[in-house]
Specification:
Layout (H helix, E strand, L loop, with lengths): L2 H10 L4 E2 H7 L6 H11 L2 E5 L2 E4 L1 H4 L5 H8 L3 E3 L1 H7 L10 E5 L4 E5 L2 E7 L9 E7 L2 E6 L1 H10 L9 H11 L12 H9 L4 H15 L1
Parallel strand pairs: 5-7
Antiparallel strand pairs: 1-3, 2-3, 4-5, 6-7, 8-9
Helix pairs in contact: 6-7, 8-10, 9-10
Length: 216
């Protein structure tokens, strides 16, 4: 690989890139696709799925962001559930799998960077409580707010039935190991919006009471 090609790859940083962009970069090669395959074998590129790659940190000098990759791998989607809670330091465990939420069909991707899981939520519920975070000035990704990540956790937990505020605290602190004291001034309007969609509204009302009484 030439120095020019290496420098051009470095410019992509940690942002995932598709075959069209790589094809433009490698247009001087007789077979750009073969060159891409060779670059994967050499370790210059990491193949995320068919047609989507990221440049090796050894070339860019930038840490890869699984949250950013998750947005590009299958979307539109946002990072949520335990991945988001770990991002905000609300749970003590290191999360290996990157979990996201979307309105399309649920899916799992196995990549060299780990497993990426996508779960489905209703369309009217999906856009509430989502914000943009950055892993570096060039890498912005969509992620649930802490409040929405908790709502997603409850919405997507099969057979979860909670009928009191105490039971919700037990579920969050004892079962999910959520540190409620780390949730500062929660935005209860996000809870109100999620409750209004009428998806697991009873459980989400108990969650709202917990956040109101424990975190304000």
């Amino acid at each position: 690989m030439t120095t020019k090609t290496t420098d051009q790859l470095r410019n992509f940083g940690c942002i995932p890139i598709g075959l069209p962009a790589l094809g433009e970069l490698l247009e001087d090669y007789h077979s750009p696709r073969d060159k891409v395959s060779a670059m994967v074998t050499e370790g210059a590129l990491i193949r995320l799925k068919r047609g989507l790659y990221c440049v090796s940190p050894q070339i860019t000098g930038q840490r890869l962001s699984n949250e950013l990759i998750a947005n590009h791998l299958y979307g539109p989607s946002y990072v949520s559930l335990e991945t988001a809670l770990a991002f905000y330091n609300l749970i003590p465990e290191r999360v290996v799998t990157t979990q996201s939420v979307m309105t399309r069909r649920a899916k799992i991707f196995e990549t060299p960077l780990g497993r990426f899981i996508y779960k489905t939520v209703p369309e009217d519920y999906y856009p509430l409580g989502v914000r943009q975070e950055t892993s570096n000035p060039r890498a912005a990704f969509l992620i649930a707010t802490p409040e929405k990540a908790l709502c997603d956790l409850i919405l997507l937990r099969a057979n979860l039935r909670i009928t009191s505020e105490k039971a919700m605290v037990t579920f969050l602190e004892d079962y999910m190991r959520v540190d409620l004291q780390e949730i500062k001034n929660p935005d209860l309007s996000i809870l109100d919006g999620c409750i209004a969609t009428n998806h697991k509204a009873t459980e989400l009302r108990w969650l709202r009471k917990v956040l109101e009484h424990e975190c304000l």
